[in-house]
Amino acid sequence: MTQPVVRLDGLCKSFGGIVVAQDIHLALEAGRIVGLIGPNGAGKTSLFNLISGAVGADAGAIYLNGRLVNRLPMHARARLGLSRTWQNIRLFPSLTVLDNLIVAPRLYAGESIVKCLFAAGALGRQRATLAERAMAQLAKVRMTHAASRYPTEFSYGKQKLISLARALMNDGNGLLLDEPIAGVEGPAYDSLMEVIRGEAAAGRAVCVVEHNVSFVKDLCDWAVFMFQGRIVRTGTVADLVASEELTELYFGR
Ligand SMILES: Nc1ncnc2c1ncn2[C@@H]1O[C@H](COP(=O)(O)OP(=O)(O)OP(=O)(O)O)[C@@H](O)[C@H]1O
Ligand SMILES: [Mg+2]
């Protein structure tokens, strides 16, 4: 059996009285796209925060490509190949779209602007290579025209696409996408699905948090349903969506 890219073993996390992860066991494997669904506040983003190191776990183990990473900070996990997008986007408004991508592989998206600006200046000769890679990622999401402009010149949905391109700058094999389709409209919807499928086919383990159930259904062959910090069921998206019990948990009684 091949080793999963991400493996969670008995992961627990609470914020005061709020349990966001309760004995979570999960494996994300290369080439597969797993959907992470559940109602608002279920703990989906928190799980991404735990895996990426944005927050520390109370108990349990997080493995990246077989390595225990509980004590590693975000940027170290990024260097081990873990990349993510953020539900609230987090592009740097004072950097061009191209520079937002160029600083991404070295410094984890979301780190301090000062560090990123320093890195952008210190890149030197590497810059041309990174710029080329950045243009290729922008091309995947059909946003090359945005390269020399600033993120806030674009709609929320377009910024989502740019933030996906930024996540793809990390050429590692773990990719966590927090609501990638929210706000994305029109033809970008289909191209986004193609991009994510392509990344999985190229060998990444992909986990997608999404409230758009039809998107998850079309994209993921397998899904995990979270509620109050617990994984309450796993299965095909069709099975989970068909469950009356889960529908009640999702929408309330
Ligand atoms: N840093 C934090 N400190 C305190 N509480 C937090 C923190 N992060 C998340 N929470 C709480 O944990 C719970 C789970 O939040 P989380 O963002 O993981 O949910 P979610 O499943 O992503 O929801 P949504 O679908 O609305 O994005 C919520 O009640 C939230 O308020
Ligand atoms: Mg969330």
Name the features.
single chain; 253 residues; alpha/beta; Rossmann fold; six-stranded mixed β-sheet; four-stranded antiparallel β-sheet; 10 helices
General description of the model:
The protein is an alpha/beta fold and 253 residues long. It folds into two domains: 1-81 and 172-253, 3-Layer(aba) Sandwich (Rossmann fold); 93-170, no CATH class. It is 38% helix and 23% strand. It has ten helices and ten strands. The chain has a six-stranded mixed beta sheet, with helices on both faces. A hairpin with a 2-residue loop joins strand 1 (6-15) and strand 2. Helix 5 crosses helix 6 (156-168). The protein is globular. The model has no long low-confidence stretch (mean pLDDT 91). Bound molecules: adenosine-5'-triphosphate and magnesium ion (MG). Residues 15, 18, 20, 38, 40-46, 87 line the site of adenosine-5'-triphosphate.
Entry summary:
This protein has helices spanning 44-52, 74-79, 97-102, 113-122, 126-140, 156-168, 187-201, 213-219, 237-242, 244-251; strands at 6-15, 18-28, 33-37, 59-64, 67-68, 82-84, 174-178, 205-209, 222-227, 230-235.
